[in-house]
Amino acid sequence: MDTIFDVLIIGAGSIGIPTALLCVESGLNVGVIDKNHSAGQGDNKAAIGGIRATHAEPAKIVLGKDSLNFFQNWEKIYGSSIGWKKGGYLYPIFEKQHEEILKKNLITQHQFNLNINWVSADEIRDIIPQIEEQNLIGGTWSPDDGSASPIMTSQALYLEGLKNGVKYFFNENIISIEKVNDVFFVKSDSQSIFKAKWIINAGGTGISQIAKFFNTEITLVPDSHEAGITEPVKPFLKPMIVDIRKDIGSSNYYFYQNYEGQIEFCITPDPPIIGENRDSTSQFLPMVAKRMIKLMPTLSVLRVRRTWRGIYPNSLDGSPIIGFDSNIENVIHAGAMCGQGYMFGPAVAILIVKMIKNRLEEKDNFVLKRLSLNRDFLSHETLK
Ligand SMILES: Cc1cc2nc3c(=O)[nH]c(=O)nc-3n(C[C@H](O)[C@H](O)[C@H](O)COP(=O)(O)OP(=O)(O)OC[C@H]3O[C@@H](n4cnc5c(N)ncnc54)[C@H](O)[C@@H]3O)c2cc1C
Fold first, then answer.
1. Which of 89, 242, 253, 335 could form a disulfide with 145 if both were Cys (CB 3.0 to 4.6 A apart)?
2. pLDDT tens-digit profile of 138-157?
């Protein structure tokens, strides 16, 4: 191929697709390569669609705010639906130790002006009348958070990218990258050669393998997570509910009613199931359904349509890794998004455009420092 792209993105996923769109909108000539057959076929389509700014790690809060802004304005600006719903996030709390953790997080969250507060058990019952009341102490409520459909989002952003001139290349697995006179030569298993001035490594669970082409180490600890979706019913549930109590075989679980009326749900296995196994299990549904129905007995009438399993591409400390490669110029790595890559995609895209165009602001440098490839990875966000 003769074209020398300004930017070649490896990975058409939660990070790569928005990055391609925002790069092309900023005037860059953009190519995207993916080993899969179409856009969003990695872990993007495994996400259930939760989007929030209310994290505990400050860098994630900054990214979350930018992303929320992008998701909630998408339809107004671009005209297509991504299934956005501003339903908020609610963490109902039943144990004193969890109240303390959440109240500690509120201090940081308020420093970043997030709309999140502690609410009483009665206030929670006003928001979710169907909740099981036993031992409910109160919880946190963030009405500005929301959800959208990861599949509709990747399609909408992909089509918008194409319209603006992004070139996508599918079924291309990268096997080597070389740099000659400021131009990267990226070779795929079909013997295609792509040329570019910048490389963005947005390879999801493949990020470490791609980083090796530049002799750069990125350590991932991927683990398997299952999710499911019910038939649609009339709207009755406003927020995403996150129950952080532990039970046998699981730590937290979370669920919400999407814009079409379906309940989408996930559970976090405890201990984690390390690895990249994407086969659904017969344990997941009984385990998560039991917990959900105990919290909200009314859910027992719903029929589950399907379940699936995907991977959280975890870093060692549970926060994303975003930064310039220190071994070679004009390479950016953006991954290790853990359980939040869908929601961070647009914010990471905004940041990457600024990195390429040398327009980083103070808040961007703050994020890049905290999410650097070279940090010590010793900190652990509570409730990541
Ligand atoms: C059950 C479940 C529920 C989740 N729920 C949420 C949620 O509610 N909200 C949220 O924000 N996140 C959620 N997530 C997490 C989210 O799905 C991931 O964090 C996110 O998809 C990671 O984005 P990514 O772009 O890094 O990777 P991906 O979306 O996987 O994209 C990476 C792409 O790179 C391609 N690739 C890799 N290596 C190569 C190579 N060598 N050559 C060519 N192409 C390559 C892959 O084919 C893939 O398409 C959930 C995950 C799971 C499993």
1. 89
2. 999 999 999 999 999 999 99
